[in-house]
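User: These chains co-purify. Model them together.
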Amino acid sequence: MSKYWSTITQSIVPYVPGEQPKGKKFIKINTNENPYPPSPRVLEAIHKVEAGTLRLYPDPLCHELRKAIAQQYGLSIEQVFVGNGSDEVLAFAFMAFYNPGNPILFPDVSYTFYPVYSSLFQLEHHKVFLNEDFSLPVEAFLQGNGGIVIANPNAPTGCYLPICDIRRILDGNLDQVVLIDEAYIDFGGESAACLIPEYPNLLVVHTLSKSHSLAGLRVGFALGQKELIQGLDRIKNSFNSYTLDCIAQVAACAAIQDEEYFELNRNKVMVTRDRVSHRLLQMGFTVVPSMANFILISHAALSAQVLFHGLREKGVLVRYFDLLRIDNYLRISMGTDEDMNIFLQILSELMEQKK
Amino acid sequence: MSKYWSTITQSIVPYVPGEQPKGKKFIKINTNENPYPPSPRVLEAIHKVEAGTLRLYPDPLCHELRKAIAQQYGLSIEQVFVGNGSDEVLAFAFMAFYNPGNPILFPDVSYTFYPVYSSLFQLEHHKVFLNEDFSLPVEAFLQGNGGIVIANPNAPTGCYLPICDIRRILDGNLDQVVLIDEAYIDFGGESAACLIPEYPNLLVVHTLSKSHSLAGLRVGFALGQKELIQGLDRIKNSFNSYTLDCIAQVAACAAIQDEEYFELNRNKVMVTRDRVSHRLLQMGFTVVPSMANFILISHAALSAQVLFHGLREKGVLVRYFDLLRIDNYLRISMGTDEDMNIFLQILSELMEQKK
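Assistant: Joint model of the two components:
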């Protein structure tokens, strides 16, 4: 604590990202990164950037990138906002659409950055309790509120909410912005982006970090009707005019335009997820059904914490959250098939030792 | 205006960056970019980045980059904070150190983003009137306040405040954070970074956009005692864990480590500035003495607006601010010598036509 810190700085409890290990080589299945590299077109695009471009400010409107995204979703460029990772887009959205004194709603088990944004921007929030199986109680999101934030599929559970339920939530909250955070939607879910023409209260947030293998480049985007995008623009232009550097802009464009690679990439991850889930069920694990690139698992015989440490000792890094309701679960990101086989092998050995 | 916008979104007046023209080829001396490309080592570093790196989150602590900066300034890594351009660093600093209800002070003529941050974070501010010659009245910054923000050299005037005056301001404000925005310090000024060991209330902010020719990559940093850097970290980690992508991190490192190139680059710009200033004085212009990579000029016989449009028509883009006290001035960024010769030639012709 320092006397120079503002009251906000003193009061916030910052987000803690998953470990990015240095030195020792781990099988790293702890931060939901894609195990496969991005489309080869990405490096090609990066290598084409000239020194003379680097000295100039990048396009503050990110015109080409927004055009590429708009085409992908059948939207207009005015319905697309891009930012420095979806975390930045989420931060801007919390500022742009929610007000102190009018509590926003999000699930009790969800992305742990939501309450952090809430406290940073001094918003109130109510946590809506998920059902026992981590599914989302739609009715609970139809009560009075100042806004709604739902990750779909949810993190760290992987649970997917079908479009018909999102429509019910949108219909029940026509005066508030309903933010659907679709960081993991490309692994089997259907994007709510198709509802944008109907709902002025819908903001859909995506990232290229997962399904486009670009976590290292920090590109996220939001889709919504023009008025919402203008709201995000106002906040962004009051914070940092140029949030996306010139390289991230061309690289993201290249990734989005290589649809064939994208399809292959996400399919591989889904196949791995389903295979690993099946195997874990056979081993007696509880596996929350997932539509994401990770699974949340638990075992009656061995505590998650013990497993976490056991795996770490053997060179496998997974994610453990010491949080209510999920403190006996591990979140396992999908690695390559080879990595997942090693993970399953080590996990079997740990279970064996326990007997 | 939209009913979905928060009260902040409705009330702010966003910053407007200088024009980034498309299509038509301009002599672009309007946004203080460096006319020369970055060190060749920058592209080399970028080309070394592998596809496998892009799929992983970047180092959230930016360890290597902070180490390179720390070495440059004789500081420890705990005294360095990096961000997505100095605009982001400034935004974080306003949140981290200033409180609503306790007005911060900055000059009436300065970087026009300061009042925007103020309004975004609902801080109050008082503008301190600069002297007639745009020099800074040090005494006026010794009155009660909630924090101080000074660009040195100032923008868009180019006026430089010597270290002894900064020391007086620091001594007179030991309980508030004094932020010295040194975006342009490398063009002849002395950085206040040397005062950091003595002053826990000093935060110095830099950018690689100007003197390192990296506007396109969005890298800025702050220097200060550990407690201040921790304050910035708390805000950043409540906003976006990974603000600097993996390419910007290695490219910025390369730029900072090529000291020889840096010296040559900034010297060329300074020589051009002094030559152009001299020529403009001969032409009867008022030239505010500048220690930056731009100059603020005015002429008694022709209005700045007329000159702005005349120059634009002839393919030369400069910056005009329709703001109190400087609405008859033009800000001219330093281009290559060739570009500046064309600018001077066209300016002469415009003056000639007037006669």
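DSSP finds twelve helices and twelve strands in chain A.
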